[in-house]
Amino acid sequence: MKRSLVVSAVGVVVVVLGALGATFAAGWSPRLGLDLAGGLSVVYRPAHPVSSNVLNEAITIMNDRVNGLGVSGATVGRQGTDIVAQLPSVTNTQRVISTLGTTAQLYFRPVLCFAPPYTPPTPPKGAKGAKPPAPASPGPLPTSCPAQYQTTAANLGVKPNASAPGGFSSNPIGPDPALASYPSTSPKADNASATVLLPAAPGTTQQAQRYLLGPSQLGGAAISSASAQFTTAGQWVVAYTLTSSGSAKWDAVAQKNFHQMVAIDLDGKVESAPFIQPTQSTFTSFGGQGQISGGFTQSTAKQLALVLQYGALPVRLDRLTTQTVSPSLGKSSLRAGLLAGIAGLALVMLYMLFYYRALGAVVIAGLALTGGLLWALVSALGHSSLSLTLDLAGVTGVIVSIGITVDSYVVYFERLKDEARAGRSIRTSVDKSFRGAFRTVLAADAVSFIGAFVLWWLAIGAVKGFAFFLGLSTLLDVFMTFFFTRPLVIMLGRNRTVTEARVLGMASGLAMNSPSQANGAPSVTAGVAP
């Protein structure tokens, strides 16, 4: 029996020290959340009401995107009908924001013709003193272009079946001047079935500033994967692979637009408008692969590849708020939380040592081991696929859990006191008292854990972190109570030196009438035999 007690208590110490040693050897520490490490918080709202399933799908895609960016500890979740993204330790905020919230709605559209920059119509002059009338509307967008402006091989001066050009150094045709009075189609009106007038994406090398494009002939869902590549020609491109069904559809699009231009429309802007011109004399298949070029930099190519890789968002999102949290503010919050926790913990330890004497040392040892194990677990979870982060709410949950852990010790020790008042010795009471006390500890911890679990399940944001750490600490309390506190107290209760010590002995801490009662002598005042 004694050997099993030693193995249990020493085993817990070895496990905790081993876990801490492995954590420090790996260079791990808890990943801090947004409010402690600083970073970025962005709130998005769907442009129109959508179902819960659509919101969840958007959250999944946005999580994939931030993980692809390598932002550790980032979380994307719901807050009512809004989507909240918390991105700790972000430096390139503009790139992250543009990648995260980009709808990535991709269409392959035939280029009808080039268009000049938009020239707002001059409002007609009204009568003197009267409000000037509104300028005349140019009418619906045309669905075709005059023959001389169409982007055919003949008009572009491209010899069919020659080596595909990386771009046109000069255009034999210019833009259709009639399109100057038409404003560009807004991203919200960029519908797959409509003819649209779209600008070239900023920073790309294009043949024109704007394009008149026909209805979409293929969507971005046909793309299986995408990656940024640096070509031998010294330019960055986005290489993509199509799905098996998408490959056949793209070949049909290429066949339909053979020796013509097809624009790649991403979120209402033309990223590239390649000329469909394979090197072989007879078109067969592109083999399910292609490239998007357009004067990309390494950063923009990787960003486009990332959004194509994980798919388009099922709904267009409007960015409501963007909040930047300073790392210095986070450090101040962490310092305040730690000071509060340490001060409270120190007071608890001093009180337990004063009140329970030798048993107070058990409390101190147990809390230290629990803290070490919690540190190792949180560090490991932060570097796992869960990417757990410790925020200020989590710190609060840990501090609150100290009270739950100390309650477990108090329940056990007070049960020992009851046995002492009944005249029983410490030696005979430590094991029996634990059996009764442990049922109470289990009941209390079960209530705490169920409350933490329900709160974690239903809550969002910081409250979720509070509930998780409270629940984790509650589970550790059950483990430490059974495998460390129980064997250590039983072994101390059987040691005469510990029980009969004048000042710090267990008998003094349990308010026994005399040190001799601690080891089996009957109590005179209680009048009850052991």
Provide the descriptors you would attach to this structure in a database record.
single chain; 530 residues; alpha+beta; Multidrug efflux transporter AcrB transmembrane fold; Alpha-Beta Plaits; Gyrase A, domain 2; 3 domains; 6-stranded antiparallel β-sheet; 4-stranded antiparallel β-sheet; 16% strand; elongated; disordered C terminus
CATH homologous group name of the largest domain? Multidrug efflux transporter AcrB transmembrane domain
Give me the secondary-structure category. Answer: alpha+beta
Q: Kindly state the mean pLDDT as a whole number? A: 81
Query: What's the β-strand tally?
Result: 15
Shape: elongated
Radius of gyration: 36 Å
Put simply, the count of helices is: 14
- Classify the beta-strand content into a percent band: 15-25%
- CATH domain fold name of the largest domain: Multidrug efflux transporter AcrB transmembrane fold
Percent range of helical residues: 40-55%
End-to-end Cα distance: 22 Å
**CATH-derived architecture of the largest domain:** Up-down Bundle
As residue ranges, the low-confidence spans are: 162-170, 521-530
> What series of H and E elements makes up the topology?
HEHEHEEHEHEEEEEHEEEHEHHEHHHHH
Largest sheet: 6 strands, antiparallel
**How many structural domains does the protein architecture include?**
3
CATH class of the largest domain: Mainly Alpha
Task: Describe this protein's structure.
With 530 residues, the chain is α+β, with helices and mostly antiparallel strands. The chain folds into 3 domains: 2-30 and 326-519, Multidrug efflux transporter AcrB transmembrane domain (Multidrug efflux transporter AcrB transmembrane fold, Up-down Bundle), CATH 1.20.1640.10; 39-101, Alpha-Beta Plaits, CATH 3.30.70.3220; 106-121 and 144-312, Gyrase A, domain 2 (2-Layer Sandwich). It is built from 14 helices and 15 strands. The protein has helices at residues 2-25, 34-37, 52-69, 93-101, 153-156, 244-256, 298-309, 327-356, 358-382, 392-421, 426-458, 462-493, 496-500, 506-509; strands spanning 31-32, 39-46, 75-79, 82-88, 106-115, 196-199, 210-213, 218-219, 223-230, 236-242, 262-266, 269-272, 289-296, 317-325, 389-390. The radius of gyration is 36 Å and the shape is elongated. The two termini are 22 Å apart. Mean pLDDT is 81; it is low at 162-170 and 521-530.
